[in-house]
Specification:
Helix content: 55-70%
Radius of gyration: 64 Å
Number of strands: 17
Catalytic activity: ATP + protein L-histidine = ADP + protein N-phospho-L-histidine
CATH superfamily of the largest domain: Histidine kinase-like ATPase, C-terminal domain
Subcellular location: Cell inner membrane
Distance between the termini: 163 Å
Protein name: Aerobic respiration control sensor protein
GO cellular component, one term: plasma membrane
CATH topology of the largest domain: Heat Shock Protein 90
GO molecular function: ATP binding; histidine phosphotransfer kinase activity; phosphorelay sensor kinase activity
CATH architecture of the largest domain: 2-Layer Sandwich
Largest sheet: 7 strands, mixed
Structural class: alpha/beta
Shape: elongated
Strand content: 15-25%
Length: 770
């Protein structure tokens, strides 16, 4: 088939190339030749010879057939040409279509690739979307879990904050409350919703609010936490002492939003501090009492032994008397150290310069030093140098204590040799003053250089071959005493060669003054309640010498029988009696006689020095035993200084109920409303008084004068409304801050109120029921 197409294409191409005429001629010649050849071949095959006719017939046949063949071939060629052209066009179209198909196929492939990429991207995106959804669901779950946990923690934190007894609150930059806990709600009397948006001036009193806002400003100005203490007041008037801490707080961008406040009630701690201070005062009083009571006879021993040493004695008696004298002096020095140790602990050591006779002072020091030195067989050199005036202004007690301590130590730590005391004086740089220079040098064991400063520390004792003796407080107290007097105390020493202690100070020169005459005290009728015969003898002798008349009750029963207010001006009441305590006696007498009872003063050998303790139990004062004339004079002077002026009035008022109750008012009130109504008012007052006193005490602890006055005003009004005149008058004193020495007396007035109101209420009830 391909060959036919090739021959046909060949003829078509040849005819096209030769043209129709030449092709016809060529074709005719070809046909004639072909016809002749065929004719010749057939004739030869059939007849064996060839004629001319055969040749002519073949030519003729070729000429006859040639036109038709040409025509046929031309038609065929034309058709073939048309077919070829159509075919070419179709081929071109097919080629175009193929090219387009290829292009489309390429585009399709590209589209397929893109589609596949899009599908892959879509699948990837879908996978990511599903992953994102899963992550989102997980995040939502975690957030819900975290939110739940946060809610639980928030609730726990809120519960913790609300359950906390401490104040917790926060305020914004405009000083407005933004939230608080329940403790703060109790303090302000407002729930949190009411408190939000209020300022301190809307919540607290002006004075409290001013300090609150002032401290807020300090926090905002410094952006630093601030801790301070302040009294705050509850809605019922109670005051509490708070330790407050304020802290600025910021958002995550560092912008300050306001402050957080925390407050802890430290009222009890403050009360404990006050009690500690009171205990310290009690300790001081106790120590002072011991000093007074023991040093009084001790001074007698020192003075009498010194006088006896000037009398004719044999050597043994003289030596024994020296021992007594030295022991008494040493014991006195120990008392001084104990007292000053207590004052040093409280930073209350005071120097009281007085005029002292300097030569006499040095003579006394020399005498004591010589006795101490001779007691151990040591020599004593006492040197004085310089122009010394007769009198100087100095605390002789403190200076004597220091020098006695230095001399005592020198003798104590010297076994051989002796002690040298030097007193040097010269004018000081400041006019009118004298520089005193005391040296106490010994030949004793000496002090190592490394320990020479340590020996002035409290309780320190030098460690050496010789066993340490003493308390280790003498030098510490001595140095601080010298420093308090404006001087200095130091030591120069070498081990085995002795020590030299030097005290330097400046004193003012002074002129002597005449002694003032003692003030005369009134003569009193005194009931002494005491069971110990020796104490009775001493007390009666002392009181009789002071000009008083004394009657004695040996126990509580006798005291109750003898204590007639008309017979005595004063009752001295021992606390430890055989049959009852002095407090029992005082309570019974107060219930029996009330205001008409004369002053009662406690006598005790175990006094804590807290007079208020005895006043709370009905006593007006306390004296420590054994009685001393000075203590008795002070108490009587305090209680009866105005006796001459007030005796007539006091006798007239004794037993008068008008001093206790407002009788006219009560009579009119009872007639108007009836005694049952009045009794119910009395019951209400009795029920309210503990709360009144609690608020009053808190205000006193806070030193809040306005609060004290306000609460006293309430008590005054309440007491006056039921005719309790004495309580009303006492409350009037408390609510009068302009009263002279109000702060000095208000505590006593409050204690009087506390002590008297139960008895006054009982007296009022008895009057109403009578």
């Amino acid at each position: 088939m391909k060959q036919i197409k090739s021959w046909a294409q060949y003829y078509v191409d040849l005819m096209t190339k030769l043209g129709l005429v030449r092709f016809s001629m060529f074709l005719a010649a070809g046909i004639i030749v072909l016809a002749v050849a065929i004719q010749m071949g057939v004739t030869l095959f059939l007849r064996g010879n060839i004629d001319v006719i055969d040749f002519v017939r073949s030519v003729f046949f070729g000429l006859l057939v040639t036109p038709w063949a040409v025509y046929f071939l031309s038609i065929v060629v034309d058709q073939l040409e048309d077919s070829r052209q159509r075919l070419s066009r179709m081929v071109r179209k097919l080629q175009d279509m193929r090219e387009r198909d290829l292009e489309l196929n390429t585009q399709l492939q590209e589209n397929i690739s893109r589609l596949n990429a899009q599908i892959a991207e879509t699948n990837r995106a879908e996978s990511l979307r599903l992953q994102a959804i899963e992550d989102l669901e997980n995040e939502v779950f975690q957030r819900e879990k975290a939110q739940l946990h946060l809610g639980e923690r928030t609730a726990l934190l809120r519960s913790f904050i609300d359950c906390s007894p401490d104040l917790v609150y926060y305020r914004n930059e405009d000083e407005q409350f933004s939230g608080c806990n329940r403790a703060m709600e109790e303090l302000t009397g407002k729930v949190e919703a009411e408190l939000i948006g209020l300022t301190p001036f809307d919540v607290y009193k002006q004075e409290i609010a001013n300090k609150v806002v002032e401290t807020d400003k300090q926090v905002f100005a410094s952006n630093e936490p601030l801790t301070y203490e302040q009294w705050l007041e509850y809605p019922d008037g109670r005051k509490a002492y708070f330790e407050l801490r304020k802290v600025p707080f910021f958002d995550r961008f560092g912008k300050r939003l306001g402050l957080l406040g925390f407050g802890r009630d430290i009222t009890e701690r403050k009360q404990y501090q006050d009690k500690l201070e009171k205990a310290s005062r009690d300790k001081t009083t106790f120590i002072s009492t011991i000093s007074h009571e023991l040093r009084t006879p001790l001074n007698g021993i020192v003075g009498l032994s010194r006088m006896l040493m000037d009398t004719p004695l044999d050597p043994k008696q003289h030596q024994q008397l020296k021992t007594i004298h030295l022991s008494a002096v040493t014991l006195g020095n120990i008392f001084n150290d104990i007292i000053d140790l207590d004052k040093l602990d409280r930073r209350r050591l005071e120097i009281a310069p007085t005029r002292i006779d300097l030569p006499a002072f040095l003579d006394e020091l020399e005498t004591l030093s010589r006795i101490q030195a001779e007691q151990k067989g040591l020599y004593l050199h006492f040197d004085r140098d310089g122009d010394m005036p007769q009198f100087v202004m100095a605390d002789g007690t403190r200076l004597r204590q220091v020098l006695w301590n230095l001399v005592g130590n020198a003798v104590k730590f010297t076994d051989e040799g002796g002690v040298t005391v030097r007193c040097l004086s010269h004018p000081a740089d400041e006019p009118g003053k004298l520089a005193l220079h005391f040296e106490v040098e010994d030949t004793g064991i000496g002090i190592p250089r490394a320990q020479q400063e340590k020996i002035f520390a409290m309780y320190y004792q030098v460690q050496g071959k010789k066993h340490a003796t003493g308390t280790g407080i003498g030098l510490a107290v001595s140095r601080q005493l010298v420093q308090a007097m404006g001087g200095q105390l130091y030591v120069d020493s070498d081990p085995g060669e002795g020590s030299c202690f030097t005290a330097e100070l400046e004193v003012a020169c002074a002129e002597p003054v005449l002694q003032e005459q003692e003030e005369e005290m009134p003569s009193l009728d005194i009931l002494l309640v005491e069971d110990v015969e020796l104490n009775v003898t001493v007390a009666c002798a002392l009181l009789g010498k002071l000009g008083h008349q004394v009657q004695v009750a040996r126990d509580g029963t006798q005291a109750l029988a003898m204590a007639n207010p008309d017979d005595f001006d004063l009752i001295l009441l021992d606390i430890q009696l055989p049959d009852m305590t002095g407090f029992d006696v005082a309570k019974t007498l107060l219930e029996r006689y009330g205001d008409s009872l004369p002053p009662m003063v406690a006598l005790t050998a175990n006094s804590t020095g807290d007079r208020q303790y005895y006043r709370d139990r009905g006593m007006q004062d306390v004296i420590n035993k054994p009685l001393g004339s000075k203590a008795v004079r002070e108490v009587i002077g305090h209680l009866f200084a105005d006796l001459a002026e007030d005796e007539a009035d006091e006798q007239a008022d004794a037993g008068n109920q008008d001093a206790l109750l407002d009788i006219p008012f009560l009579t009119d009130y009872a007639d108007t409303v009836g005694k049952p109504v009045l009794l119910s008012s009395v019951d209400l007052f009795e029920k309210m008084m503990p709360d009144y006193m609690a608020v009053l005490d808190s205000n006193m602890i806070a030193k809040d004068q306005a609060g004290v006055v306000e609460e006293a005003h309430k008590i005054k009004g309440a007491a006056g409304s039921i005719g309790l005149r004495r309580l009303q008058q006492t409350a009037q004193l408390i609510q009068s801050p302009d009263h002279p020495a109000w702060w000095e007396n208000v505590e006593d007035w409050i204690e009087t109120l506390r002590r008297e109101y139960p008895g006054d209420i009982a007296r009022l009830r008895r009057w109403l029921l009578s």
